[in-house]
Amino acid sequence: MQAQLLDSMDLERERGITIKAKSVALHYPFEGKNYNLNLIDTPGHVDFTYEVSRSLAACEGAILLVDATQGVQAQTVANTLLALDAHLDIVPVINKVDSPNAQIEETILEMTNSLGVKAEEVLQISAKTGQGVQELIDEVIRRVSPPESEPGRPLRALIFDSVYDSYRGVVIYVRLEDGSIRQGQDIRLLSLNQVHHVEEVGVFTPKRVPVGELKAGEVGYIIAGIKQIRDVRVGDTVTTEGDTVEALPGFREPKPMVFCGIYPTNDQDFTELKKALEKLSLNDSGFTWEPETSEALGFGYRCGFLGLLHMEIVQQRLERDMDVDVIQTAPNVTYEVVRRARGSQPEVLRVDNPAKLPDDGEIEEFREPICRLKLITPTDSIGDVMKLCLDRRGQFVSQEYISPIRVILTYDIPFAEIIFDFYDKMKSITRGYGTMDYQVLGYQPDNLVRLRILVAGEEVDALSIVCHRDQGEYKGRRMIQILRKEIPRHLFEVALQAAIGGRVIARETIKAVGKNVTAKCYGGDISRKRKLLEKQKEGKKKMKNVGSVEIPQKAFLSVLSVERE
Question: In angstroms, rounded to a whole number, what is the distance separating the alpha carbons of residues 546 and 509?
């Protein structure tokens, strides 16, 4: 027995969050009948909304759990709307009612105002002591409609998740809509039209337990000797070989919104990093990666994430689970650029790396992603939170009170402005009581520029960033001031410049290391000293032309702090 049994990852236990959805089959006797309940524990954080939407597609109902000590949070509202859009039966529940800090009446009021549930339908439980848990399961059976299926129909099953097992290959998680499946059958995956032989079917208890057959309405797993996880698409439909069926409505593929470069600290670890990324991507369909090279950092990978927490989790798993030391470049979002028409039609490019942007003269329009940001905050912090949003170029949309002491603020804000330290600052302003949730709406044109950093006249691609023109000079000046402290002095003078287009907007100079070449001269004519100094001057001039400036990795990491100010 161990606490947090379903949150099996060390990171999940340490942070107290759920990262990966888990499924459990439960046999439960109620009023003389034996019921089979299939439960999925999903994450709540906005970065893992994809896990939630996949799970909702496989369910008939949802238990809406609200913490009595914290009240309704921003992601609670977002996930409730997802459940309503999926036409699920909702069972509202308040947890931690045994806590001395529980605010039961206020939480019920917030739920009725923001989620539209009826106060008398809200159940009160304590998962810690077990109070009210049995009543909750009874209510789930009463309120949630059982799955409907006509007997005799051919097999149709929805793939809602998949994991990779080193010994068995890909394990497919399915929810059966129609028909049944048993060991020894041949199945076909509709989207890729591939046929596989079923080696094992089973259910989760929560460990995998083989069973003879899965029937319509049940949730379980299929092992069919599939070697590549890319051969299994989440949201695809499984049917038996020879049957022609209509595909089940799936769900959209997750689109990475935050990108950064990940490089090994040691060049020799490049192959190890590749193996580690391959292992991670097998069990995380929202994570993408592709090779890239940087003049400053060498060979590495451009990685895409669903959000900033997702990026942090992947980096920690690489370092802890895979034992690979990595350097991470500044995270950035995907931009859209309209390139000036070379033919009849202007070309629209999606750019996830500032170094890949076309020249400024070719850009007709620069667009950035805009997101709809919902913040739930105590009423005494409204002014400070609004100021934070306005400083980040946010546009006010609405304000709605869900209780006398809590309010929902809605803003449209550039996504790039919230991916760094926005969450930390908002938590600090609201003394930890504020919560946020966002949804990317689309792309909007703005006055954006690429800020280039030049060291000794050479552009350093890993330090390029995209920012608003109004902030360009401040950010450029701060970046080169930090670099001046971090780059060691050389035997020649090193110029650091920040430029927008062809215009240099800031400059700092690292002075050359002084060497007293006249120290060995004692006495004699002054012309001897002059001759040595002229020789040194010529040598430094030659060195400046052929010498290269080495930028330590510490300098790259310290420059990231500019983005967080």
Answer: 18
